[in-house]
Amino acid sequence: MAGKAGKKAGNKETEMKVKITWKEIKRQKVLLLWSLVIVIYGFIFYYLPLGGWLMAFQNYKPAKGLLHSEFIGLDKFKRLFSDETFIRVIRNTLAMGVINLVVTFVMAILFAILLNEIRQRRTKKVIQTVSYLPHFLSWIIVTGILHDMLSGAGIVNEMLRSLHIIDKSIDFFAHPSYFWPIVAFANVWKETGWNAIIYLAAITSIDPSLYEAASIDGAGRLAKIRHVTLPGIKPTIIILLLMNIGNVLNAGFEIQYLLGNGLVQSVSQTIDIYVLKWGISQGDYSIGTAAGIFKSVVSIILIVVANQIAKRNGEEQLY
Amino acid sequence: MRKKVIANMILTVAATAMLVTGCGADDGGKSKNSSGGSSDSEIKEFTAFFAVPGSEINDDNEIQQMIAEKTGVKVKETWLTGQTPEEAIGTIIAGGEYPDFIEGASGQQQLYDAGALVALDDYLDSYTNIKEFFTEQEWDSLRQDDGHIYWIPQFSNIYGEEKVCTHNDEAFWIQTRVLKWAGYPEITTMDEYFDLIERYQKENPTMEDGTKNIPYTILCDDWRYFCLENAPQFLDGYPNDGSCIVDPNSLKVIDYNTTDTAVRYFKKLNEEYHKGIVDTESFTQTYDEYISKLSTGRVLGMIDQWWDFAYRAGDAIKSAGLDKQGCNYVPLPITIEKGIKNQWHNSGGVVNAGTGLGITVSCDDVAGALQFVDDLLGQEIHDLRFWGVEGTDYQVDDKGEFSRTPEMRTNCADTAYKASHLCTYSYFPQWLGTSRDGINAMSPDGQANEFYDGLQTDVKECFDAYGVETYVDMIGTSEAPGAWYPMWSYSNNLTADTDGGMAWTKIGEIKHEYLPKVVMAKDFDAAWEDYMKAYKKCKPEDFLDEMQKELDRRMEEAAKYQ
After folding, report:
1. Low-confidence winner among A176-185, B129-138, B514-523 (lowest mean pLDDT)
2. pLDDT at B28
3. Distance set, CA B474 to CA B171, B214, B432, B477, B486 (Å)
4. What is the set of domains in chain B, with CATH numbers?
5. CB nearest A263 (choices: B116, B509, B513)
6. Which chain B residues are Cβ-neighbours of A278 within 8 angstroms?
7. Where are the domains of chain A?
8. pTM score of the predicted model
9. B256 partner at 20 to 30 Å CA-CA among B8, B156, B404, B529?
10. A and B: number of Cβ contacts within 8 A
11. What fold does the segment set A74-312 form as a domain?
12. ipTM for the complex?
C-alpha cells in the first residue's frame, strides 16, 4: 500500500498529458483487457458480497433466503444501539485498538532505530530474525503460551514469588484491569519485530551523506537519530499510521476470544466477538450484519478524517 | 532415471492399496449379510457432524470397515472442536453446505429454522428397527410445530429391563482416598462434604509424591459452567431440569437462581474460597487445563457430569496407576439439609426431544442413510458397535453371557486401540438395557458382573465398604419425575427470537460474570446484591413465563395418551 501511494504521486504528470482517444484505447488494448480482469475480480469478491448488507435491514431467516425475508428497516440498528452490551463492546474495541496501535507503533519505531544503531552486522541480523519470528505463530499458540506463563504455577508468578514481590500467586486472568495490558503486551511481543522491518528498510534508504554531514556539524548519535533518522522515515511513519488508524476497530478477535472468560467478559468482548455471539450462535444474522456495517462505516470515517488531517498538515497521504 | 523412480513408487502404492483392500474384503467375507454389498467399490460413504466434543477414529478403523462390509455404508464422523455448538452450527448454516447426518446439540433448533433438515416421518414406517425405537407417543413428542419429525434422539432408550451401573450425570464427586481416610462415613449434606474435604486436606496436604492437593475445583469454561451454576436445583432435591425447577404438585416453574438454597450454596463456596479450599484458578481455567488437573489425581472433589470427565481423566488416572493412591471418583448423595430425597440420578430413559440425529437437505440418498441407521440398531451390528469383535474384545461363556478379560478391558480404555479398532458410531441411535438375547446388556457398561469385575481396586474397595455394587447404588435412584421432564431440552433450543430466549441468553451472560465474582468476593452479601440487581435487569420473568408455557404444553400433550 505504501508503494502504491508513492507510485500514484509519480504518475500524476503522465496522466495529465494522455488524452483518451479511440486510437489510444486501441493501442493499450492488451493492457486494458488485463486490468479489466482485475476489475472483474474486485467486483466479484469485494463488491458483490456487499449485497449481503441487505440482511441488516431484514428479519433475515436462512430458510427464506435474502429475497424473501421480511424488511424491517432500521429496527436491528435500533436494537443494537439500545443494547448496553453493544455499547460496552464498542468501548472495548476502541480502547484495545488504540492501546495496541500506540504501543506496537512506538515499540516498532523504537526497536528499528535501536537495531539500526548496532554496528555489528551479524548481531543485528540475528536479533532481527529472532524478534520477528513470533509473528508467524498463530494466536492460538501465543494465547496458550500466555495462559501457561501467567497461570498460578507459571513462570511469571514463580519469578515474582521467588523475588518475594508477592507471596500468593496473582490470578492474572481473573481481574478485568489486567486484561487490556495483557492483550497489548501480547501484541507487542508478537508484532514488534515484524513491524520494525519496514522502518528498518526505510532507514537503510536514507542517504548516508546526510549522516556524514551531520557528523561534520558535530552531531552525536542521539542528535543524528533526532535530526536525520526520524525525519528520514517520517513519510513511512505517517503512511503506516494512516493505514493502521483504519484498522483500529479490528482490535482483534482470536486473542480476546481465547483469553477471555466470564470474569473479564465486560472488558474482553470486541465487536467481532459480539457478531459471532449474536449473529452466528444465536442465529440472528441480521444483527450480526448490522454490527458489521457499523464497524465498516466507522473505519471508513476514521481513515478519511485521518487522511484529511495529514493533507492539511502537508504530510504524505493515502489518496 | 527419475521417471523410473516415480513409476516404482506408483506401483508400490497401488500394490499396498490392493493388499489393504484385499484384507478388508477377507475380514468381511466371513459374515456376509444380505443387506449390503461386500466389496469396497460398493461402499457408500456418508458424512456426519456432531456438535459435541468427540474423538475422530482412524480412516482404516477395523470395526468401521466390518460394519461397512455388512451394511454397505461407512460414515465419516467429525466433531466439535474449540467452539460452542451454536457457533459451529451457525457457521455451517451460513455456509449452506451440510454433511449428510447432523446432530446440532443446542444448535438443533437453528438447523430446523434454517430449513436444513429433511422431514423423516414419511420414511419411518419402512424401517422396523427405527420404528421400534420409540412408542407412538414418543414419536409424536418429536413432532415440530409444522407437524413433522426431523430428528431421532439417540440416547436413553431402554430395551427390555434397564441395566445401568454408571451414574452418567451430575454429582458431587469425591476421591476414594478421602472417604477411605475418614473410614467411609455417611456424607449426605453439602456442609458435611466440604467439612470432610477440609479435614482431609489439613491432615494430607499433598499426594504421595509430594504434589500439592487441590481440594475442590470448579469447571467454569464456557457452556460447561453448569458445574458451578445448577447445583441449587439438586441440593433442594429436584432432578436435572437444567434451567429451572418444576414443582411436581402445583406444576409451576420455579427459578433456582434466587432460592435460599442458592444463596447458601454460593455463600459456602465463597467461604471455602477464602479458606483456600476452592481452587483459585477455577474461573479462569480452560476445559483442557481442568482435565489435566484431574488426570494428575490432585483434585479431591468437584461437581461435574460423569461423561464430562470420566472418560478422559478416568483413563489417565488408570494408566498412571493412581488408583492405588485412591484417586478415582465416586458420587455422593448430597443435599442441602439431611432428610431430603436426592434426585441426582433418574432411572428410566427420558427422551430429549430437543435434539437428535437429523438428515440434511444436502444428503442425496435419504433412504440409504435411514437404512444405515436401521442396520445399526440390529442386534448383530449393535453388539459389534458396543461390545466389539467376539474373541478379540469380549468372550462368550456356555450360557451365552458376555465378559471381558482384564487385557480386553485395558485395550478398550486405550486411546490408540479405540481409534484403530473400535467404532461405536456413538452419536447414532443406540439401545440401553438388555440385549435381544435376554441375557446380556446392550453395552459392557450395563453388564453387572462385567462392570464390577472391571472396577479399579480403590473404587471396588469403596463400594464394598458402603455395601453397594454400582455408582448408581452409591447415589441412589428415583423414577423420572413426570411427563414434562427434562425442561432443558426446551431451554437449550431457545433462540434470541423470542423475549424468553433473549432473557435466557442475557441471564447466561450475567451468570458467567457474576457467579465467579460472588464466589471470590470479600463481602459476599454485597456481591450477591449486585448480582441480583444485574440478574433482575435480564427480565428473568420473560424466560420463566416461556418455560411455564412449554411445561403446560407438555403436560397437555401427555394427557392425550392417558
Report:
1. B129-138
2. 36
3. 11, 24, 20, 9, 23
4. 29-162+350-451 (3.40.190.10), 170-338+455-481 (3.40.190.10)
5. B513
6. 496
7. 19-72, 74-312
8. 0.83
9. B156
10. 81
11. MetI-like fold (1.10.3720)
12. 0.78
